Amino acid sequence: MDEDWQVNGLPLPDLLVRLLKSGRWQQPGDEALRQLIPWFHDPLDFMLTLDELRLHNRLIAESADTMRFFCVGRGSAAQPIAMPWLDLDQAVYIAICRYAGDDIALALDYRSSSTDPRVLATDTVTLSRQQVSWRQVTPTLSEFVDALHLRQPNGT
User: Fold this and answer.
1) CB contact at 8 A, 114 and 121
2) Structure pTM?
3) Closest-CA residue to 127 (of 32, 41, 44, 34)
4) Per-residue pLDDT of the chain (156 residues; tens, 9 = 90+)
């Protein structure tokens, strides 16, 4: 994969690159997202360009308070970050809350696979602990894309 298609030093999955290049990586609509992620009650916006992905991921990484609140850490081989936390060094945010304060996001979690990572979403049920945790939406990006009908009829 072309190194220009990296975010957080991670190569974007081929499927996501193809969708971005073809314009098929689009906002699926609030109702479609609610059906796939029923614990989300607030609207979410996809990052639709490589520049948006890079910008928002960089801003999240620069805020220690945001990282703590959203159960985001930086793991290592000696001390890996486990669910329900997100390891920022092995993740790429792909969607964020439409309105500030809604505390929702989606991320690709490369701990499961570097070529077809799982999709995680924030889970605000844990707000009683003053933190947001992470929960699996789909085991792979491919399943996420298929559930939202983002592929062209020929499968690309």
Assistant:
1) no
2) 0.86
3) 41
4) 455 999 989 999 999 999 999 999 999 989 999 999 998 878 889 999 999 999 989 887 776 555 565 666 677 667 788 888 888 889 999 998 775 655 678 999 999 999 999 999 988 765 555 567 889 999 999 999 999 999 876 655
